[in-house]
Amino acid sequence: MSVRRRALVLFFCTAVPWSIYRIAGAETVAPKTIVILDFDLLDDQHELSPATAEYARLAAIRAQLHDALVANRVYRVVDAAPAAALIDRFRSRTLLSACNGCELDIARALGADRVLVGWVQKVSNLILNINIRIEDAASGKVLLGLSVDLRGNTDETWKRGMSYLVRRIIEKDPADR
Questions:
Q1: CATH class of domain segment(s) 31-176
Q2: What is the pLDDT of residues 30-70, one digit of tens each?
């Protein structure tokens, strides 16, 4: 066997098992923790068509998001209930999606690595959009901001919109989320 062949054999005997070890090791890294705050509703058409069913849909898409992130092992979701008093205090002043950093205080109080803030803007009864923002709790850096437009205000359109956002979160490189 030539020196070049021996070098190649030696390389593959050491490099391939090492890469398999690294890949296997990457799978065992625990996902980051995240707290998912309740979604806000921005109702631009309140006087013309006040929101009613939308409030139930806010809870439904939050639950859908929670279940999908857990099922796909994207994040370990932290229960927000222990910070209920803090959340209520902030929510009594403003929307959580626009509270200028209170979401980070909530995440830090719960010991979460990340916080997800979500809101739905109801432009009209036919045009809505679902928005989410994921932030690093320690630095406040926005790691991911996503939005999807809906045409139609039904349970099904909201569900499909959230499914789209979940797919986009899952596609994101784990190191960047």
A1: alpha beta
A2: 899 999 999 999 997 766 666 789 999 999 999 999 999 99
